[in-house]
Amino acid sequence: MARSSQTDMAVLGALSIQPMSGYAVREAIGEVLGHFWSESFGQIYPTLKALEQEGLVARAGAARAGGSAFTVTETGLQRLRELLNEPVREVPPRNGLLLRLFFGRTLGSAACRELITGARAEAVDRLAGFDRLLADNDAEDEPNSPYIRMTILAGRHSAEAAIGWADTCLAMLDEMEQA
C-alpha cells in the first residue's frame, strides 16, 4: 500500500516540533491531533523508515520512551513546507450517528434519544479534554503553542456545537412525544 502524503505531513510535522520515537509520534498524534487526525502504528513505522531512507528524517539516538528518536532534517522541513502548501484534501464524512438518526422513524424515538444522549455525554467529555489540552499548551515562550491552541480551539468549538445540537434534538424529541 502506498503511503499517504498526509501521513508524511503528520509525521514530519510532529518531528518538526521535537525529536521523538515512533511510539512518541503516535502518542503525540493521538493526544494532541486526535480530535482531527489519526495515524496507526502500521502507518507510522513504515513512514518513518521510508522518510529515513529518503533523508527526510534521521535517527537522533535513543529516545526516552522506547526505540530510536528521530529528528526531521533540513530536507525534511523543506518537504514538510511543500506538503503544507498543497491544497487541503477533504474526505467525505461518514457519521454513523447521523445515518441512524436519518432513519430515526424506523429506529424509534426512544432509541434516537439514547443515541443523542450518548453523543452529548461524549461531547461533554471531549470538551473537558480540550480544556485540559488548552491548560497544558499555554506556554507563551513555546513558538508552536499558538498554532497548537488554534487546533485545540477548533475541537473545543466542535464539542460545544455538538452539545448545542444534542440539546436542540432532545427538545425536538420532547415536542414530538408531547404532540
From TrEMBL:
Keywords per UniProt: DNA-binding
Keyword DNA-binding listed: yes
GO molecular function annotations of the record: DNA binding
Ranges of residues in domain Transcription regulator PadR N-terminal: 11-81
Sequence ranges assigned to domain Transcription regulator PadR C-terminal in this UniProt record: 94-174
Name of the protein in question: DNA-binding PadR family transcriptional regulator
Species of provenance: Catenuloplanes nepalensis
